[in-house]
Design a protein that fits this description.
The protein is an alpha/beta fold. It contains 13 helices and 20 strands. The protein folds into 2 domains: 2-156, Leucine Aminopeptidase, subunit E, domain 1; 175-488, Aminopeptidase (3-Layer(aba) Sandwich). The strands form 4 sheets. Strands 7, 8, 9, 10, 11, 14, 15, 16 and 18 form a 9-stranded mixed β-sheet that branches. It has a 6-stranded mixed β-sheet with strand order 1-6-5-2-4-3, with helices on one face. It has a 3-stranded mixed β-sheet with strand order 12-13-17. Bound molecules: ligand BES, manganese (II) ion (MN) and zinc ion.
């Protein structure tokens, strides 16, 4: 989709979207429509500019759509309105599209509004049916000739052009992450994840190193290898690095890359087990954030570390009661083989700290059902040993619509993971505070790093959406991390 910022309406565009907020004077917008001989203008009270409300009109050959944004829409509201409009009305759109701000007053932060609108429109073209043999009609905005003109007055167009480009690039990476998380488990074995990262690195000019099974054995990634024991497919550690010329900060990201979680011998019930193909949602967020940071040439150095494996059932599977080692040297008593995410993260976290000494360490993982029970599908769980980092992440989430809410990390919870036979056990003694005891387990493996945050995204990596009848990928974390990175400005 090609995007241009224009100050004049172009009479060729077949479809024009007119965003209207409730604090705009709706009657002024409608008066202008009347003067321009628009037909199908709503009668008073027929269109209230509620969020997601759409009103179709005509002007000669052009189709006009009023798109309601509600009162005081922020970035997430604009984004979601455009995304759901672009999807729902796909059959009535054309590849020649305009979004016109000429009918109403200027939005408050035009760059934000333009980025959100473009991001939403570009995401609306996403299609989930990759493995269907016949796939219906292409979305008009994903055709090669697709064009989107943003008509806007009174702002410098260079910054708007950049905002629009950002919206499109981020949407492109987010769509690739949708594909990765939505992919069935047989199409995204650890080796496929590694290949994805290597290809992305080549396209977008950053580096990827893959540690294969032999290297992991030689280096002592015992916890990752233990989780992999029951799988017919070798594990790997993906290490992606993007480094600009003069980085203003060094941030390490670690993502849980369990490509399918059966639970292992502590096997899960079969209902909904298929959703555990998304147990690499943390890894996907990390890989997407590195890719997008590279494409946007952000001023921060990002190191993405992804321990990737299946958690399968087999004669070789690790057992409950097994004591395993770890890359850190600490021993772990495995109480439940379904608490595997913290095991692979233990090795990933310690590797990231030891080799890269980052300023900030953030891990993302679909780690516990306990987070889902606590907060449902509307926020990720945030755990951090640094208040400033926690606040920055929460605020970034609030701004971009990928919300976080903080849980405590008090040492009072440490007793839960005390083991009689090893340094630590992988499951709490009592069935309470499961999200917190998981975070306390991870804390054992960060080598006392002073600025660490753990994001439990079990409830938000998949969501109901306009793209599918069942839960599908959200790419949660990509935008959140980008938003957090943007708090570091170039020196
Ligand atoms: N991958 C799951 C967590 C999960 C649950 C993700 C629901 C997405 C949706 C994780 O590996 C797991 O199995 N957690 C168990 C841990 C338990 C055995 C201590 C859980 O939370 O039930
Ligand atoms: Mn599990
Ligand atoms: Zn899992």
């Amino acid at each position: 989709m090609e995007i241009a910022i224009t100050h004049q309406p172009d009479h060729h565009e077949y479809v024009v979207v007119i965003p209207v907020t409730q604090h705009h004077n709706l009657s002024e917008v409608l008066d202008l429509c009347r003067r321009e001989n628009v037909t199908g203008i709503p009668e008073p009270g027929q269109f209230k500019a509620d969020w997601n409300e759409v009103w179709p009109m005509y002007k000669g050959e052009q189709r006009l759509f009023l798109l309601g944004l509600g009162a005081n829409p922020g970035f997430p509201e604009v984004l979601k309105a455009f995304r759901s409009f672009g999807h729902k009305f796909r059959q009535r759109l054309s590849s020649d599209l305009a979004v016109s701000f000429l009918y109403a007053n200027m939005p408050d932060k035009p760059e934000n509004v333009v980025e959100a609108a473009v991001n939403g429109l570009a995401l609306s073209a996403y299609r989930i049916g990759k493995f269907k043999t016949s796939n219906g009609e292409e979305h008009p905005l994903s055709k090669p000739e697709a064009k989107c003109n943003i008509c806007i007055n009174g702002v410098e167009s260079k910054s708007l052009q950049q905002a629009a480009l950002r919206g499109r690039i981020v949407a492109d990476t987010q769509s690739r992450i949708f594909d990765l998380v939505n992919a069935p488990a047989n199409k995204k074995l650890p080796g496929d994840m590694a290949a994805w990262a290597e290809e992305s690195a080549q396209w977008y000019n950053y580096t990827v190193d893959i540690l294969g099974k032999n290297q992991l054995q030689a280096l002592g990634f015992h916890a990752l290898l233990a989780v992999n024991q029951g799988s017919a497919h070798p594990p790997c550690l993906i290490v992606a690095q993007y480094c600009p010329e003069k980085p203003v900060a060094k941030i390490a990201l670690v993502g849980k890359g369990v490509t399918f979680d059966t639970g292992g011998l502590s096997i899960k019930p079969s209902a909904n087990m298929y959703l555990m193909k998304s147990d690499m949602g943390g890894a996907a967020a990390v890989m997407g954030a590195v890719e997008a940071a590279a494409r946007l040439k952000l001023p921060v150095q990002i190191i993405g570390v992804v321990p990737a494996t299946e958690n399968s059932v087999d004669a070789h599977s690790m057992r409950p009661s097994d004591v395993i080692g770890s890359y850190s040297g600490k021993t772990i008593e495995v109480i439940d083989t379904d608490a595997e995410g913290r095991l692979v993260l233990a090795d990933g976290l310690f590797y990231a700290v030891k080799h890269y000494k980052p300023d900030v360490l953030i891990d993302l993982a679909t780690l516990t059902g306990a987070t889902v029970r606590a907060m449902g599908y509307h926020a990720g769980g945030l755990f951090s040993n640094d208040d400033a980092l926690a606040n920055e992440l929460m605020q970034a989430g609030e701004r971009c619509g990928e919300r976080l809410w903080r849980f405590p990390l008090w040492d009072a919870y440490k007793d839960e993971i005390k083991s009689d036979v090893a340094d630590v056990r992988n499951l709490g003694i009592r069935p309470v505070a499961g999200a917190i005891s998981a975070a306390k387990f991870l804390e054992v493996f960060i080598d006392n790093h002073p600025r660490w945050a753990h994001l439990d995204i079990a409830g938000v990596a998949l969501q109901d959406s306009e793209f599918s009848s069942q839960k599908s990928a959200t790419a949660y974390g990509v935008r959140l991390l980008l938003e957090y990175f943007s708090s570091f400005s170039p020196s």
